[in-house]
Amino acid sequence: MARAATTSDAFNAVAEPRRREILNFIALQERPVGEIVDSLGMEQPSVSKHLRVLLEVGLVNVRRDGRRMLYRTNAEAIRPLHEWTATFARYWRHQLSRVKERAERRSEMSKDIETNFNPRRTDDYDGNKN
After folding, report:
1. I want to staple 60 with a disulfide (CB 3.0 to 4.6 A). Which of 26, 43, 54, 75 is the partner?
2. Domain range summary for the chain, segments of one domain joined by +
């Protein structure tokens, strides 16, 4: 089966870890390419390529400020990704709750065993000294 183009949709675009890193970095504040390059330690051509992909699928907005291009994450376009992953978040919260409950039950069982455990055998202390 042929692999889908990274520009076909948001899911394919964010499959690349460096693009997710860029999205995180520009989520709260718009930033120029040079700042993204410096902060993330990536090469400028690579950042530009990733930004172009993110722009094509609508995950990034760009604004010109004089000669600079400022990029910012388009939060509204990320909503479908968030909604889709929320399904799995609910699943994992449920699973983690079950793990926690099981661990608490085992902990209680261990405490009960320790409380009822007497390491001395009664016949060892019957007063006979051999």
Report:
1. 54
2. 10-73, 77-115
CA distance 30 to 75: 12
Cβ-based burial of 108 (10 A; exposed 0-12, middle 13-18, buried ≥19): exposed
Q: How far is CA 30 from the centre of its chain?
A: 22
Helix axis angle, 17-25 to 44-56, nearest 10°: 80
31-57 pLDDT, tens per residue?
Answer: 999 999 999 999 999 999 999 999 999
Two tokens at 129? 């000294």
CATH-assigned architecture of domain 10-73: Orthogonal Bundle (1.10)
Instruction: Give the CA count within 13 Å in the CB-facing half-sphere of 4.
Output: 11
Residues in the chain: 130
